[in-house]
Each structure stands twice: as C-alpha cells, then as structure tokens.
Amino acid sequence: MEKISRTKIVDLLRRDDFGAMVNVKGWVRTRRGSKQVSFIALNDGSTINNVQLVADLANFDEEMLKLITTGACLSVNGLLAESVGSGQKVEVLAREIEVLGACDNTYPLQKKGHSLEFLREIAHLRPRTNTFGAVFRIRHNMAIAVHQFFHQRGFFYFHTPIITASDCEGAGQMFQVTTMNLYDLKKKEDGTIDYENDFFGKQASLTVSGQLEGELAAMSLGSIYTFGPTFRAENSNTPRHLAEFWMIEPEVAFNEIQENMQLAEDFIKYCIQWALDQCIDDIQFLNDMFDKELIERLKFVLSHNFIRLPYTEGVKILEEAVSNGRKFEFPIFWGADLASEHERYLVEEHFKCPVILTDYPKEIKSFYMKQNEDGKTVRAMDVLFPKIGEIIGGSQREENYEKLCNRAKEMGVPEKDIWWYLDTRRFGTAPHSGFGLGFERLLLFVTGMTNIRDVIPFPRTPHNADF
Ligand code: 4AD
Ligand code: MG
After folding, report:
1. Ligand in nearest proximity to the CA of 260
2. Is 85 a residue whose pLDDT tops 80?
C-alpha cells in the first residue's frame, strides 16, 4: 500500500481540495451497500462525525472485503470527493484498503442502542460508542478549561500528595495504604495495630482532599489550585458518588468568603462557556440523544447570577415547603445536613437557579472553617446546581491559631497529625479561602449524563474496580 501521511477525520471533514489523495485510519462503525459498492462509516475518535468511504467492490480482494465488519480497524488510501448523500460534505473514494485489525463476530457493539448499564459492563470498549466518545472528548476539554482559567488568573498549579497521614475532611472515609501482611498483623499490647514496621512507620491513607497542603502553598504562592485524584470510602452507591474522583481545589490568600463565592461562580461559568465553544458537536449529540434541554440549561446558567443565601434562610424555605405539604424523605430542621433532595428543591423548584448556600452550622462542617461571631455557624459555602445538588464545597478558613486548635480538638482531629498545618497560623497567618469542585459533578452537568459512572472512563464504586 502506498505510504501517505494520515489525515485525522476531524481535519478531513473540513477540507475541500477534492481529488486529493488522502489516507485515513479508524474503526468501522457500519457497512452497508450492494453487490457492487460498499459504504463504510469510519470513525477515528478525533470527532463524533464519521467519514464515509465508498468502495467499488470489483477493485478489491474478496477475502479482504470479508474482514470489513463493524469494529474492524482499517487504513484506507483514497480520493477526497464531494459527497451528496452521506450527510457530510466530503467522502473518500477508496483506492487501497488495508485491514489493520479484523474484528471477530463476538464484538459486543454490533448494533446501536445499547443501554448505559450494559455499556458499563464493557467499559474497555464503550469509548468506541458515540456517547462515550463525546463524553471523554468533553472531559478532556474541561480539564484544559480548568488549567486555562487558573493560569490566566495567575494561579499556580500545585501538586499535593496522594498518600497522606491526615484526614482533611475528618469524615473518616479513607482507604488505608499499607505494605503489612494482613494475614499476620502485629498488634501492640493494648490490642491496637503496630504501624512501626509499616512502610511509613505510621498509619497512612489515600487522600480525601489536597486542601490542607494547598493552604500551605497559598501562604507563599498566594493563589494556587490543585487538580488530582481523590479517594473516599463512603459506602454510598448513588449516581453522584465515586470512590475515586477528581477534584479541583483553588486556595487564595487574602480572599474572604464573598470573593471565594465570586471565584467559584466565575470558574464554573468559564468551564461551561468553554464546553459550548469547544465541544458543541459532542454536546449537540448528547442533547439530541439523551436530554433535549441540555444546551438550554447550560446557557441558562451562563446568563444568571447565582443566588446567595445563608443556610438558616434555606432551612426556613424548606420548612415552609414541608408545612405546605411538600414531602421529603429526610427530615429538615435547623442543624440538619441537607440531603440532595433538599438542595435540589431549593435550586430546581424554589429559585430555579444555582444557589450558593453559606454559613452552615459548625457541627456539620469541617474543623478548618472560619467561625462566625454567632458561635453557631461557620463561613462555609456550598454551590448547589440543578440536576446535581452540591457541585462545590468550600469556605473561608479559620486563620486564628487558638480558635483553630480548639475546634480541631473538639472535633477529634489529633494535633500530632496536623501540627504542620496549625503552624501556618503561627507564622504569618492571613485570611484565606478556597473550595473544591468535583470534576465529575461538573461533567454530569455539562454532558447531561445522569450517572457519575458514565463521565469517568473506569469508575470505582463499592464492589466495582474492574478494568
Ligand atoms: O465538599 P467536599 O467534601 O469539600 C472538600 O473536600 C474541601 N476540602 C474542598 C475545599 O474547600 N478545598 O468536596 C468537594 C466537592 C463536592 O462538592 C463534590 O462536588 C465533590 O467534591 N465530591 C465528590 N464527587 C464524587 N464522588 C464523591 N464521593 C465526592 N465527594 C465529594
Ligand atoms: Mg461538601
């Protein structure tokens, strides 16, 4: 076969130099036609769109033609031609075809219309579907948007450790990391496990957040963000929780809660605008396929200011709804942690707009949040989104050394684990704020997918770590 340098399909579909000899490589999506001619839809992942190959069967070897089945991988030389019927502007009149990889007939993606549940069971192949091609191209673009947004604003990308000995959120949902032999655990006299001979000489886990280390960086670099994998062993098998997810955590010296809220709003809007600008083919596909209101919803969020509301006011609205007959599964009262149904009521039914809820009761939030004068609430902020619920959690941080130590003690966070964190409050402390955006929750919103397992290539959830 003549050696011609490959053109990606995304580029090919934009060309109009008809008559040029081109090479395309990709996987067969469909093949149809007659005894004389075959129409082959080829996709190479560079775009959701296929290129149509037209093959005059008389020109090709019969045995080779038999191998051109759905899923097979081809390299094709041919003439770029103007197309009339393929739905695209161009097609390729095949001159030479090489089957790089035949596909046997047990290939599970023979026909269209598999359920998302079924596709999860073949996560090694699902990127080859239109839906997951679209989702993962959008996922890439959102990661780029994250870096663009912060880089343009002078934030530094800071890498925080994945293995840690401190529980930032204090929620005790950590995966332990050990090299000890679990069949022969050494115990101390009091029955507790002796970590002296473990790899780190102490109990270690996978991180639930890079925030504490991020704060250290903000106290020198000023504005930083982290973007990395995060692990939580919460046994909640919901469409919004993963055991392994990606989180973006900006942290900014001198920002107070108001500026933190504005940063969060600007950040989300920037990402959504980026998706509409860079991924419209994929978003349009998902809109038509799964969720007819997707694009409308994205544009709506861009054009509205987020509502800002103290938790106490939010609870009043919810209590009023209950007294007007609205039923919730979980009870609502001042002091209760809001369930997803409460958050979505505020966003989808009451305000019909994203809401930033602030000033939560200190009992339901982490030890590091700045305590308000009232002695009851902390300067927390959760950004609540339609269809998602909580998409961002953050706060202004307690910068006062004594107050922070006391709160850590009250909440059972051992000083020996966080002495280095407490040190920042002794050595030139400053007001500062930050938040965490769940990357997959953002992707749920941008793609319109409804299960978080469908926006990450290989989801980790309770009893599921295949692939
Ligand atoms: O509200 P969270 O727990 O906040 C923190 O971790 C803070 N340290 C962030 C900070 O202030 N720097 O988590 C932040 C976000 C949530 O709003 C949610 O979007 C996402 O992380 N998240 C999850 N996403 C998927 N699966 C899970 N199990 C998640 N847990 C939290
Ligand atoms: Mg939270």
Report:
1. 1
2. no
Dist. CA 457–CA 139, nearest whole Å: 10
Nearest residue (by CA) to ligand 1, atom 17, is: 392
Q: What is the pLDDT of residues 274-326, one digit of tens each?
A: 999 999 999 999 999 999 999 999 999 999 999 999 999 999 999 999 999 99
Alpha helices by DSSP H, listed for 165-279, are 211-221, 257-278
- Which of 146, 212, 247 to mutate to test ligand 1, by most ligand atoms within 8 A of the CB atom? 247
| Ligand 1 site, CB within 6 A | 168-169, 209, 211, 232, 234, 241-242, 245, 247, 249, 390-395, 434-436, 438, 440-441
Neighbours of 357 (CB within 10 A): 25
Q: Give the model's pLDDT for residue 341.
A: 95
- Claim: this prediction has a pTM higher than 0.85: yes
Q: Where are the alpha helices (DSSP H) in 324-425?
A: 340-344, 401-410, 415-423
CA of 287 to the centre of ligand 1 (A): 27
- Interacting residues of 105 by C-beta distance below 8 A, sequence separation 6+: 69
Q: In 3-state terms, the chain is what percent helix, strand and coil (to 5)?
A: 35, 25, 40
How many angstroms does the Cα of residue 257 sit away from the middle of ligand 1? 18
